[in-house]
Fold this sequence. Notes:
- This protein is α/β, with parallel strands linked by helices and 679 residues long.
- Among the domains are: 5-175, no CATH class; 281-582, Alkaline Phosphatase, subunit A (3-Layer(aba) Sandwich), CATH 3.40.720.10.
- It is 46% helix and 9% strand.
- Strand 12 (595-596) and strand 13 form a beta hairpin.
- Helix 1 packs antiparallel against helix 2 (37-57), helix 1 (8-29) runs antiparallel to helix 6 and helix 9 crosses helix 10 (203-215).
- The chain has helices at residues 8-29, 37-57, 62-89, 102-107, 109-114, 125-137, 149-171, 184-189, 194-201, 203-215, 243-250, 254-264, 302-310, 325-335, 345-348, 358-364, 382-388, 397-400, 414-426, 458-462, 468-493, 514-518, 557-564, 619-641, 644-670; strands spanning 5-6, 141-142, 282-288, 312-318, 368-373, 394-395, 434-439, 500-506, 536-539, 546-553, 588-589, 595-596, 600-603, 608-611.
Amino acid sequence: xxxxKDNYLLSLIVTTILTFTIEIIFRxxxxxxxxxxxxxxxxxxxxxxxxxxxxxxxFCKRWLRNTIIAIYVLFYAIYTCLQVGFINYxxxxxxxxxxxxxxxxxxxxxxxxxxxxxxYLCVFIPFIILIVYFILIKRFEYKRQKFNIKNNLIYIxxxxxxxxxxxxxxxxxxxxxxxxxxxxxxxxxxxSIPTIAVNQFGTLVFGALDLKTYLIPVEEELNLxxxxxxxxxxxxxxxxxxLLDELAKNEDNKKYATLNKYFASQNVTGYNDxxxxxxxxxxxxxxxxxVNDGIINEKYFPNFMKLYNEGWHFNNNYSPRNSCxxxxxxxxxxxxxxxxxxxxxxxxxxxxxxxxxIFNLFNNKGYTTTSMHDYYDWYYARNTIHxxxxxxxxxxxNALKVNASNKYGEWASDAEFMEKAMxxxxxxxxxxxxxxxxxxxxxxxxxxxxxxxGDLYKELxxxxxxxxxxxxxxxxxxxxxxALGIMLDRLEEAGILDDTLIVLLAxxxxxxLGKGHVSTFLDYDLNDYEIDRTPLVIYNSEMEAKSFDMYTxxxxxxxxxxxxxxxDYDPRLYxxxxxxxxxxxxxVVFADGSWKNEIAYYNAAKxxxxxxxxxxxxxxxxxxxxxxxxxxxxxxSMAIKNNYFKYLEEKYTExxxxxxxxxxxxxxxxxxxxxxxxx
Length: 679
């Protein structure tokens, strides 16, 4: 029997097994399937990466070889642990494309660490096994590889063959899920949907692909399926600019031509029973920080419940989380565009302009527009972003003179914010209607440490047997409810409550609490993205109370309000649509391309569908919905990256100026006037 030796082959096998074990543990923690083609692909990638690492390390002395392999496995475990932690805490995977939010993430580090579950540390078990293995193997002879042409050639050939096999797994049709929204090849070129990319390629390969696209950005070729041909379009009585159809035919720029063609192909929703119902009324939109359905509680939140019970409330509304959840979701609510999934869109593209955004629609109707937020512009450049969407004036904590602390976690009081905001709002010239957007801050995380407003009403909830973290959260929400009461009182005192439409929605659920805490005050299952369910309320003191069951999100806000107030808008330019229109298709889309409605929940990360009743979809119908969803997400990204709406506005302005010149010229001719005669 030959003496056992510590050699290259053994190092390769051990490193492959241990790194693959890290991936298996990650899949178990994320509830991904283990017996799948993606697991086989990940095994091959673990072998390929281990082959490269051990090939290099095998030429070194044993201590250096062990160090190289140990560092590799430790890095693998740390990165994987962070990914499982982030998806649990923030609902997204780590991406270099969101590095602009590094300051915000470091501020959240305390909450982030406290959200960690002991089970996440299981990914370090393979590293511990590796260290034990290195200790035990010391007594065996180490066979160091010689640096020569033969060995080099063998390693190169092995790496080449492994890479070829791995490439085959990416492109092989039988290893591609038939319901997957993006092909593995597309995701390998650009991992733009991290949840699917991580599932298909594993954590470390995703990290490498993310780094590659960060250093060398990729422009994807869009595989669009246009909504309608000219023959299929629904005829609508709503007038929209015909120029878009002309631009779809005549634009030379390839990207703008694609965007023109897509938007021109969309149907124009017409007028309905709700059109102009609140025309001419003042409008206040309040984006409530971190508020979920826990605010639907008569005992604790009377002011919200007054608006909820006496207004219109939507039972299946969601605020899907994205990277930079508040900034991106605020952006989407204001523009009805999907933000770019793994990018802090609101900041990265802050210089873009959007003539179709909510403020500009009201500006065009003669409204005075403002926007206000009771914090500084440290995380999001709102002064620039809101201005470029048409806000006539943006007020932050400094401008409002709100008592806001520089210390993370000690957020300003929404109640004080509302008093200051109403002072400004009600001092305006009331000859014109106003539209204002409030973004609150008090309910923001953290909830695990003391804070002025987390502790203000804490005992009220503690005595009702809520734990400390939940009690601090609900205490903060109660401050927001106080702010709603102040707003209602001030509007009534000013005699304009009847003339004001109030809209309440939330930026996202209190993600740092996690399902365990949230389940103590919500009585429904939080799986299938139900944890992202949030309130949507539309209120006017003279309206008839109603409840709606269609599936909605912030993406529908602009077109719905535009129709309710009879604003001039082109429905084709929005990813959402008027939820009160008979043609509205009940559906909520999540950041990774997952979606749900009354019939089913489609999980894009796993390419699986779950039905809620007897009604089902065929595979073709699922693919059709997936294509529609994917098109909207990709078109939004393309439009944002190329500042499309600035281009379109310039084209409209140029066209209108040409029309004016033509009108003047015809007038001169008809009246036999020479321009020189006009002084």
